[in-house]
C-alpha cells in the first residue's frame, strides 16, 4: 500500500473489513510472528506458508503430522 493520499486507493482501496468473528479471534488469541522472518521471505506463498505453520504449531496441544 502506498501511504500517499490518493495513490493506493485507486488500486486497492484504503481499508480492509474484517468479520466480527475473525476480529475477535485475531485479537483474543494472537499468534506470535517473527518480523525478521517476514522481512526475509520474498514471495507471498512463502509468507502464507510461514504464517500458516506458525499458527498451526502455536495451537498444537499434542504431536501431530501435517500432510
Structure description:
The protein is mostly helical and 67 residues long. The protein is 46% helix and 0% strand. The protein is built from three helices and no strands. The protein has helices at residues 20-28, 35-40, 44-59. The longest helix is centred in the last third of the chain and has 16 residues, at 44-59. The protein is extended and about 50 Å long. It starts with 19 loop residues before the first helix and ends in an 8-residue tail after the last helix. The mean pLDDT is 83.
Q: What's the short version?
A:
With 67 residues, this protein is mostly helical. It is built from three helices and no strands. 46% of the residues lie in helices and 0% in strands.
Give the rounded overall mean pLDDT: 83
Q: Percent of residues in beta strands?
A: under 5%
Report the order of strands and helices.
Answer: HHH
Largest beta-sheet details: none
Helix content: 40-55%
How many strands? 0
Structural class: mainly alpha
Number of helices: 3
Low-confidence stretches: none
Radius of gyration: 16 Å
Describe the global form.
Answer: extended
Question: Span between N and C termini?
Answer: 34 Å
Amino acid at each position: 500500500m502506498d501511504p500517499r493520499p490518493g495513490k493506493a486507493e485507486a488500486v486497492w482501496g484504503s481499508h480492509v473489513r474484517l468479520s466480527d468473528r475473525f476480529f475477535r479471534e485475531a485479537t483474543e488469541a494472537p499468534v506470535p510472528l517473527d518480523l525478521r522472518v517476514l522481512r526475509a521471505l520474498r514471495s507471498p506463498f512463502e509468507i502464507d506458508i510461514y504464517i500458516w505453520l506458525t499458527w498451526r504449531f502455536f495451537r498444537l496441544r499434542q504431536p501431530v503430522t501435517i500432510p
